Amino acid sequence: MHILIAPDSFKDALSASDAAHAIACGIRRAAPDATLTHCPMGDGGEGTLDALLDATGAERREQTVQDALGAPCQATWGWHAETRSAFIELAEASGLQQIPRDQRSALHSTTHGVGELILAALDAGAETLLLTLGGSATNDAGAGMLEALGARLLDAEGAPLAPGGAALANLQSLDLSGLDPRLAQLRVEAAVDVDNPLLGERGASAVFGPQKGASDADVATLDAALAHFADCAAAVLGDDHRDLPGAGAAGGMGFAARAFFGASLRPGIDMVMEQVDFDARLADADLVITGEGQLDDQSLSGKTPVGIARRAAASGVPCVALVGRLGEGWQACHAEGINAAFALADGPMPLDEALARCAELLGDRAESIVRLYSAASS
């Protein structure tokens, strides 16, 4: 029996690599002789950088930058000297996982640290940038990133805006003349894990703002502020990207990457599968086990489990998803190649307990699945 283990991270609990290890431990209890292939994955969110560095052999570098609330943090990025390529994961600088749940503030969080990482890449001589979007604590449509790169966002009195998406409601002048000139020669490819537009009921603020600490009132404030920012950007750039699929990724960073860098936006899971040569790993597999924190109707928009399942289905390999929670509309994932999906909790439990026991619960579910698969195959 050959099992391909290809999970994403479980937010606030396990990295993709740790999740793969936990699944493998459970499988070993049921099938000690099984051949296991570990393939930690990412779709643009936290953990994607690790998958890319492992696949490409890029150098791991560290940079001190601002986190989403402006505090200093150590962020990892990747440098591939042979191809003059930089790998930057937004979540390393502005990630939700870095901010305690009781401190998350969608109104005021900033992507300034992402801009600092891009400056480090430019200083290294980057000609190509692979920017992975997802797992953000931010909802500022890249405004903080632009300021770090030299843009000026000013209010009616000519003062710089405060950090965060809410302050964009006061934007009077968007001055791009000070942007680092090296950006003009940088080819940018952005990996997105959703296809949401910037604004509206499927936009960045409405869909993802609440998990970043936004109340209903905050969502309305942020959506209006981002709409104003999009108006200002369109007036300066002569083009409007607010409705682009993926523009709402990472609190509007998809919008910023396309509008200000001319980036191409690609589903992050497709990009990562290409980099790790996923099809070659899949070729000999009898079963695929994938997973992440939640499976729901949003998973159809580019999340790891569905991307993995689609590729597995095309090769005729069954795929099972292990997830922290089965959310609304998860059943639609069956049509995309997920043969079965299981939530991890073995009974009612507080979130903190579920997070603390994530590795244990993953191993238990994986063991049960492989025991059932073995019985059905015998």
Automatic annotation (TrEMBL):
<dbReference type="GO" id="GO:0008887">
    <property type="term" value="F:glycerate kinase activity"/>
</dbReference>
<dbReference type="InterPro" id="IPR036129">
    <property type="entry name" value="Glycerate_kinase_sf"/>
</dbReference>
<keyword id="KW-0808">Transferase</keyword>
<protein>
    <submittedName>
        <fullName>Glycerate kinase</fullName>
    </submittedName>
</protein>
<keyword id="KW-0418">Kinase</keyword>
<dbReference type="Pfam" id="PF02595">
    <property type="entry name" value="Gly_kinase"/>
</dbReference>
<dbReference type="InterPro" id="IPR018197">
    <property type="entry name" value="Glycerate_kinase_RE-like"/>
</dbReference>
<dbReference type="InterPro" id="IPR004381">
    <property type="entry name" value="Glycerate_kinase"/>
</dbReference>
<comment type="similarity">
    <text>Belongs to the glycerate kinase type-1 family.</text>
</comment>
<dbReference type="GO" id="GO:0031388">
    <property type="term" value="P:organic acid phosphorylation"/>
</dbReference>
<dbReference type="InterPro" id="IPR018193">
    <property type="entry name" value="Glyc_kinase_flavodox-like_fold"/>
</dbReference>
